[in-house]
Each structure stands twice: as C-alpha cells, then as structure tokens.
Write a structure and sequence with these properties.
The chain is an all-alpha fold. It contains four helices and no strands.
Length: about 80
Amino acid sequence: MTEPRTGIVERAFEIAKSGDVASITILRQVLTKEGYPNIAQVMAGRSLKLQLTRMITEARMARQRAMPVQTPEPD
C-alpha cells in the first residue's frame, strides 16, 4: 500500500519552512515539479501567500544565522 501524498498546502508549508526556496514563485515551481495540480488556484489567497512569504523569509534568515562566519586568513 502506498502512502497518501501530502496535501498541497501542507507541502507548501514544508517547503517554505525548509529555507530551500527564496520566493513564492520558486515554491510554485517546486510544487509543479513534484506533480501537484491546480497550484495557482490553491495559492491564490492573499493570506496564504503572506503566510508562506513570512515562512520563507524566516527560514532563510535562520539559515544565514546558522552559517559560520568565514574570516580571511592573514597573508
């Protein structure tokens, strides 16, 4: 028996929280590549787009904070 596929909104939240995408446009492209249908209709709501945008921004900022600072070595 195969596992049921994650719903489109739930999957959009997962991707947004991952920090792997930089925008809603890229998020939509990822969902399209994963085979989700009706992305434009599902993600048409302003509230959902704002939520996802905030998640993307927070995840990318957290990822940047977690990266070690590299200092150049003296010559």
